[in-house]
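Our example pasted here:


***
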Amino acid sequence: MPTNLLIDDQQLNCKSVPATGSRPSLWLLLLWLISPLASAATDDHSANGSRVWLQQQFSQQLSLWQRQQPGTWGKTQLQLGQQTLADCHGTLQLARPLPANPLGPQRLQLRCSQPQWSQRLRVEFRAQARVWLAKSEIQREQIISPAQLQSQWRWLTGRDNNLVLAQQQIVGQRSLRRIKANTPIKSAYLAAPWWVSKGQEVVIRAERDGFAASSKGVALGSANAGQTVKIRNSRSGKVISAYVIEKGVVQTRF
């Protein structure tokens, strides 16, 4: 009866077969020498070899994708369910390349050159990774600190390709929404910090006809480089519009 098949790229075991006698007979030795198995081609793939080859294709594609997804990765696993693969004594080939992100369920067509056969497969490829989660609730517009994060090892599938797996890409970022405790951090939840934040004291610079002056003010809104923000002048109390030119610095334009 077929069973669900799991292939782990870090657990490929070979079993040795004990000898049945202390010295094989000459007849058995000659029989083994003329057997077709003794001259099998190096590119032969048994059913198990075909599965290993398929696992390698997924692992190689995952390695390419991981270059764009910095983080800490672990084991990988290919699930074939109840499907079985035929032996191949030639070259194995996929009908079309694997997607850039090979994680998750996939529909494949595997081909063999000798003997010629083609088989459609439904597989699922997944990988272990260290996932960062909110340790406590993170409020909207809050700058995230290391103390607000915790990590867990999880099996990732195709639905998890928006997770941020590197802590350094989370710490110091601004939260775009309220993130509940134990929620994995996704890229859609993060943005770069404002150059000027509401309530922040800023430097106001003014230039006209070769003259320059500066004063202090308080931002009445938040903005990034090149954006306009309302500023209340701390000395006069007057509200002006200014452009953000540096972090914590704005400039008026006449």
